[in-house]
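2 proteins. here.
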Amino acid sequence: MKKLLLLLLIAGFSAYAQKAMPSVSLKSVDNKVYNVKNDFAEKDKLYVFSFWATWCAPCINELDAIKEHYAQWHKELNVEVVAISIDDSRTQKRVKPMLIGKSWPYTILLDTNQDLRRALAIANVPYTVVVKNKKVVYVHNGYSQGAEKELYNKLKEL
């Protein structure tokens, strides 16, 4: 049983698979309020919530890598990426300047008070949560070069 649990954890599964997405409201960088459960709820659409921070190099690398494929993913798989910054009040001022240089095509939300992070029990970033029909269907923690291909393959399965 321990081996099976370990294999499931290694494969990126967690106790949150098929858990309902929490109803948490976050602001975008332009001060628009989004409820992550209700505003990202188009039927059968895949939502990739990518948790990141300005001080996290692997997070930035992951979002840059996804950007290269995003137009194709969006068209082929009906995927929307929502990048959620977990920068706190001390580092939040770095988010907008970074976004100007990156021109990521994602909706960028700010989890300054860590409300969504806590609700999903996220310990560290980068952390990816895939949601379909308001349910968490896949989670993955960490990033290494090429992991976006694994994410793409997982999204195709869903």
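next one coming up
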Amino acid sequence: MQTIMGRRSLLRLGGAAALSSFALPALADVAPRRATLLNLHTGDRFDDVYFENGAYLKDALAEAMKVLRDWRTGDVGPMDPKLFDALAAVSGKLETRQPFQIISGYRSPKTNAMLAARSSGVASNSQHTLGKAVDVRVPGVALANVHKAALSVSAGGVGLYPKSNFVHVDTGRVRRWTGV
């Protein structure tokens, strides 16, 4: 026996399919997220889960923030948890467990003012001072591939600095640029 679906049945089926597609990202929101970081200036490391069961882990984030501290002053700034999410997503795109080598994470206003006075390439209102930026590279991964992966995540700003050998990733507005 052949049945013909009425218009209402088709609409219900379409609505159920649309709702199920919204449920899939929600499932991903409970998956553990890990950050693997190595501060090149201090030698400090972080390699742990910072998000699990749908929540950020306060103690793990505090340890990760220490690794991203201003190495010139020792100041630990509050880092945007979404920055760690961006790095985890970039790491996933690169399919690597290599640590992000941290060139610069949090910058105190004092450090940022000093760097801005020395170089026109340092923003006076840098995302680093807001705890929303990190400058990284990944050992064994071409800088162009790190840059491409960071762009594909669309978490915020991405700057490529080929001569300085790092990629800037931030959680500010989405934008891109190339520096030195």
